[in-house]
Amino acid sequence: MGKAAKRKMKEQRRAKKAQIDAKYATERPQKPYKDTVRENAVFENYYKQQGIVGTDEWEDFLACVREPLPAAFRVTGSKSQAEQLLHLIQNNFFSQLNTTTSKGEEDTKELATEETSTTSVSLSQTLQNTDLADVKEVGVSEASESNGSVKAAGDAIPDTDGAAVANGSTAANGSTAAAGDTKSSELKPPTCLKWYPDGLAWQLEYSRVSIRQNNTLKKLHSFLVSESESGNISRQEAVSMIPPLLMDIKSHHKILDMCAAPGSKTAQIIEYLHADSADPMPEGFVIGNDVDNKRCYLMVHQIKRLQSPNFMIVNHDATRLPSLTYTNEKTGSTEPLLFDRVLCDVPCSGDGTLRKNPEVWRTWGPGHAINLHSVQNRVLSRGLELLAVGGRLVYSTCSFNPIENEAVIANMIKKCEGAIHLVDCSQQLPDLKRASGMKSWKVQTKNGDWFSSFEEVPENKRSWVRPSMFPTDDMESLNIHRCMRIVPHHQNTGGFFIAVLEKTSHLPWQSPKVEVSEASTESAQADQPGSTTVDKAKEPPTKKVKYAGFREDPFFYFEADNSQWPSIKEFYKFEDSFDHTQLMVRSKEGEKKRNIYVSSKSIKNVAKNNENKIKYINTGVKVLARSEHEMCKCSYRLVQDGISSVDQFVHGRRMNIEKADVIELLTQENPFFSRLTPNTQSNMLKMDMGGLVMRYLHNDSNTGTESPILMTGWRGKTSCRVYVPKFERHHILRLCGVDPDKALIDAEWAIKGKTGPEITAADVEDPPKDGVEEVTATDS
Ligand SMILES: C[S@@+](CC[C@H](N)C(=O)[O-])C[C@H]1O[C@@H](n2cnc3c(N)ncnc32)[C@H](O)[C@@H]1O
């Protein structure tokens, strides 16, 4: 590719990003957070009346929701290095935080005199502005809901560098909290979320002032941002981690996440799918869907970090998600694609997030739940249609409101006439405190009128307030108590609602043969004004929706006789068992052909069967990039993103290296062979020029665990370069016991200060064309 073309591509990418940023910038609440008063009499009266918590708990509940939310993160469990990373976090940061309390207090007290009028902003908020997990869709006006447009209330956009664009927090009386009040001046020890498996998830509560004043906190903050970029940890609100845990995911499952953007739960699901790190391309797959095209791209960023070949991102209205087909590997026949697991994390009023999004205090109204009830029903209905018999669906919201929660679940159980039931999860996650589903509630309109039953609703309001919003006498027999409500004061979290459903037979309106009919009448109309919900006639499927030719990011799988494959196969000695028809390019010719991606068999199966039905956004992980060099027999080099997916099939161009080599290669731009260990030097000399994969078996004496570290690179004439993105470099260096910031600065000084023969123009003697881009964070 020529320089001009490259520049043009970069400009286009930048322009697209600017467009997205600009859109979301205008959607951010204009009112500064610090002005937000954490009070709303209507909210308080509403939930007191609903009996959302016992009367004896009410004050605790209210006090807690007025507090800022702690930040939470989890270590990515599917990575073989999880244990090592956790040890590192505890050793390098947490152990010091437990002992730095008194210093922190002094520091923040000092500051309090200077900054009494500044807002107290917790690390939770600075991190949460980059945690997109629970940016629920809130504040839906009555007019806008009917056409499906929703408006985000939270700060939905991460800072590109992961640093703070903080929400302010305000005291309960509405005055902004002083930076130096007792609470913000305490450095509380990090809290392990006991209910999360293997001690991998943690909560932190530190003010911005503390972060600024405390070196350990400052380092912890940038550490979390960096490790999160490289996919080794995920910053995610604690309660948002619950639904994927209750999905009981196995590596062979076909999984659908219906309202998935920005993708925190999808990422967690992918992580569980890859729980067996010995199998980089398991049988199952995950499809993440969202109706909002821009938010789908936020999801691309989230998911790419995990480098999974087993996912696909699509862009549909979940209430009308098209029916897909799948080729049965055993019989070779084409069948409707039904999912083993479905997540319906539906758009909701989001009042469970008011600790994180104080703006909700200002915008909250009882009408929001009423507006959302219909779309929530329709998403759930379509999800159940697409769920296989025997499969499990998890429904969740970050709303306290029974109209968005129990009412939707009860309505659907009745409508399904015994085909689904609520699963008893009381034995799962035993350390998680939860309240049982509510059996009675009332409906309040935006005008403040309360109704206990549909019969009380005046005729002129009946098209808006629907029968399905009310509890009925059979709540007990529906086991509605098996729903779970997480209330903030029980374990210092946000609010959340989860219901786990299992499908035991075909839905009444689905015949087994047409069970995935195009967005059936039921899901498309469930609880629409005028519908009677429970007694609806069984109707035939509606007309098919076609998306012929619509593909945002087209891809073309390799044919069996692909002309490039033989030279790649020969050069890297790909095993015969590797199915190269799982490889694809994004275009038949031109620029996009320079990268080759790999997807799992199952994803290829879905993609090939449904090419003209799905609005694809993204799939596949980059595994080879074009790197032409006159002295190299293969025009492609291996790419770091996809190396773990194909590593087991690559038998040529590999080399075992030592820890000292890893450090040298990651901290120096293009080190000469002479700077590597004798063994590695000699192996380099035996190898021809071109792409390669280097492997270092990291033996961690602290945890007694071993984990392989893979790095792709380029063997040049006299030097070697690695192609490892910035944050992954940092991660590997940390595992090797090296502080990346210090090491990289030292390396830079070494180069700058060098006048001798060692570092010359030959340092960049033979980088393959296009290579340098690969090490930037944006490409990770
Ligand atoms: C609560 S957020 C999802 C959060 C996400 N599950 C996560 O954990 O990162 C709800 C999402 O639903 C999407 N949404 C709203 N209406 C939808 C519809 N009809 N079909 C599909 N997605 C929809 C919104 O764009 C939003 O991204």
What is this structure's SSE topology?
Elements: H1 3-27, H2 41-50, H3 58-65, E1 71-75, H4 82-97, H5 101-114, H6 123-128, E2 137-138, H7 142-146, E3 151-152, H8 182-185, E4 191-192, E5 201-204, H9 208-213, H10 215-229, E6 233-235, H11 242-246, E7 254-257, H12 264-273, E8 285-289, H13 293-304, E9 311-314, E10 325-327, E11 334-336, E12 339-345, H14 359-363, H15 367-386, E13 387-397, H16 406-415, E14 420-422, E15 435-436, E16 443-444, E17 450-451, E18 484-486, H17 488-491, E19 496-503, H18 521-525, E20 556-557, H19 565-572, E21 583-585, E22 595-598, H20 601-609, E23 616-619, E24 621-626, E25 636-638, H21 640-646, E26 654-656, H22 659-667, H23 678-686, E27 690-700, E28 705-715, E29 720-722, H24 726-735, H25 740-753
Parallel strand pairs: 7-8, 7-12, 8-9, 12-13, 26-27
Antiparallel strand pairs: 1-5, 1-6, 2-3, 4-5, 9-23, 10-11, 13-19, 14-19, 15-18, 16-17, 18-19, 20-21, 21-22, 22-24, 24-25, 27-28, 28-29
Helix pairs in contact: 4-10, 15-16, 22-24
Can you summarize this structure?
By secondary structure, the protein is of the alpha+beta class. It is 32% helix and 16% strand.
Task: Give an account of the 3D structure.
It comes from Bugula neritina. The active site is at 398 (nucleophile). Residues 1-35, 100-121, 164-184, 512-540, 757-780 are annotated as: Disordered. Residues 163-504 form the SAM-dependent MTase RsmB/NOP-type domain. The chain has 780 residues and is an alpha+beta fold. The chain has 25 helices and 29 strands. Strands 7, 8, 9, 12, 13, 14, 15, 18, 19 and 23 form a 10-stranded mixed β-sheet that branches. Strand 16 (443-444) and strand 17 (450-451) form a beta hairpin. Helix 4 (82-97) runs antiparallel to helix 10, helix 15 runs parallel beside helix 16 and helix 22 (659-667) packs antiparallel against helix 24 (726-735). The longest helix is centred in the N-terminal third of the chain and has 25 residues, at 3-27. It is globular, with a radius of gyration of 27 Å. It starts with a helix and ends in a 27-residue tail after the last helix. Mean pLDDT is 81; it is low at 22-33, 99-185, 528-546 and 753-780. Bound molecules: S-adenosylmethionine (SAM). S-adenosylmethionine binds at residues 133, 136-137, 148, 150, 240, 259-265, 290-292, 295, 317-319, 345, 347, 375.
